[in-house]
Amino acid sequence: MANESRLVLPKPMMAKLASLGIYCQTWVTAERQDRAKRWVLRGVESGGSAKEFGRYISFFAADGSRMEWLQKADRIGANGVHAIAIGEVLIGVEMARVDETYQLAISRHQFGKPKAEGKRPPVESSVIFRGVDGQLSEKLRKQGLAPAFLTRSGQVKAVPGDFLEAVKLVAGGVSCLNCRHVHGLVGGKGSAEAKDPAGTVVAIAS
Question: Does domain 2-191 match CATH 2.130.10?
Fold first, then answer.
């Protein structure tokens, strides 16, 4: 079930991405905030691109708007982990690219009902939109546009309007050579000083 909300790429594509050092963490986990006595969802913005191949995922609020990162995650290598997001609901926008052809999955992640009081709640994921073999030329990508998708019968399959800007941002990430940037999540005012609900600083990112 979890895989249904993510892109399932063929083995040769996965092998190619691995050989290029492109790492994309597409799963969402439930994490416990002990001081606040609550559970939150945790997603990792990650990925990047080589010249012809790319994979990227970022996370957004339930209405498709951008979220502040909890923590920026700088790494020695490029095309890997970029930032951490937490929330009670996360919208994941995942994209893979071969040259000018794009695959897209937009998914909603939220908590299900725990099996017992106090136990870790399950993460329930559902697909909002799936686009196959979308086209976007490099020229149009540089203008900040999103890939265009069609149905199997050749009709336009439009990305839901609430998530169009998010898709454009992730299209930038999946085409970002040797990516070290955060494309979807945003920092807070000045340095991103993240606090838990009790007001305690839990992370500081510049």
Answer: no
